[in-house]
UniProtKB/TrEMBL annotation:
Keywords: ATP-binding, Ligase, Magnesium, Metal-binding, NAD, Nucleotide-binding. InterPro entries: NAD/GMP_synthase, NAD_synthase, NH(3)-dep_NAD(+)_synth, Rossmann-like_a/b/a_fold. PANTHER family: GLUTAMINE-DEPENDENT NAD(+) SYNTHETASE, NH 3 /GLUTAMINE-DEPENDENT NAD + SYNTHETASE. This is NH(3)-dependent NAD(+) synthetase. ATP binds at residues 35-42, 137, 166, 188. GO terms for biological process: NAD+ biosynthetic process.
């Protein structure tokens, strides 16, 4: 049976590099900036950005916390060295610890969300400093499952990999030559020690991607999904996550009191008037 998640890497690379170049330059910006974690998603974005714009127009920011794995920073640095791009390292420990001195009983979720938003705040500061567009690094699996922080890692100016499932991110990363140790290590947001995405989600990316492409892209019914071998419990779990996290994929809802409300009646493309 043909792998339904298989992509044509050469064609997808052409589409995504053109997307980065066109969407950056059409708004009068020449550079891009993004958070480089040492994981596969941000590494892939780095490789795509360099192919699109050249290394001199790409800036990576590495933002470790004191509990971040040293290997993550080393893997991020390996990308920087391989691509020859400019980079900065900002340790977010002082500001995160200063805030949580007042909330010592804060849960790991609160701490993780705060770190994700602190990192995005730093990226937008770099955006202003460098006149650079912030590139998103969330993939389609994460966006559908709501596995990310609103106004944190889910934020960006444009997102070149948001229509690629994690399985497809791995395919494209192999094609573009992302370092092997980054492709093969367990995915982790590195928010606390020994955290992995799949441990938190309760299933593997490979399994959920096989379900998502049928459910979302091919609009299979639950009965058709069961016929494909997926359990009722797994199907329901994934559907609940998609629907419960819809709000994360939308701009903030504005109360309608006029004839033309932004986001409801007043809707234009991002590059309207440019």
């Amino acid at each position: 049976m043909k792998n339904r998640l298989e992509i044509h890497p050469e064609l997808v690379t052409e589409m995504l590099t053109r997307f980065i170049k066109e969407e950056t330059e059409k708004v009068g910006i020449q550079k891009v900036v993004f958070g480089l974690s040492g994981g596969i998603d941000s590494a892939l974005v780095a490789f795509l950005a360099v192919r699109s714009l050249g290394p001199e127009r790409v800036h990576a920011v590495m933002m470790p916390y004191k509990t971040s794995s040293p290997s993550s920073l080393a893997d991020a640095q390996a990308c920087v060295d391989a691509l020859g791009i400019e980079s900065s390292v900002i340790d977010i420990t002082p500001q995160i610890d200063a805030y949580f001195e007042r909330f010592s009983d804060a849960s790991p979720l609160r701490r993780g969300n705060k770190m994700a938003r602190e990192r995005m705040s730093i990226l937008y500061d770099f955006s202003a400093q460098l006149n650079a567009l912030v590139l998103g690094t969330s993939n389609k699996t994460e966006l559908l499952l709501g596995y990310g922080t609103q106004h944190g890692d889910l934020a960006s100016g444009i997102n070149p990999i948001g229509d690629l499932y994690k399985t497809q991110v791995r395919q494209l990363a192999r094609y573009l030559g992302v370092p092997k140790q980054i492709i093969e290590k367990p995915p982790s947001a590195d928010l606390w020690e020994n955290q992995t995405d799949e441990k938190e989600l309760g299933f593997t990316y490979e399994d959920v991607d096989r379900l998502l492409i049928l459910l979302v892209d091919r609009r299979y019914t639950k009965e058709e999904l069961r016929n494909e071998g997926f359990s009722e419990e797994f199907i329901d779990t994934v559907i609940r996550r998609i629907t419960r996290n819809q709000y994360k994929r939308r701009i903030p809802l504005i109360a309608k009191v006029s004839n033309r409300t932004i986001g409801i009646d007043f809707r234009y493309p991002r590059d309207w008037g440019v």
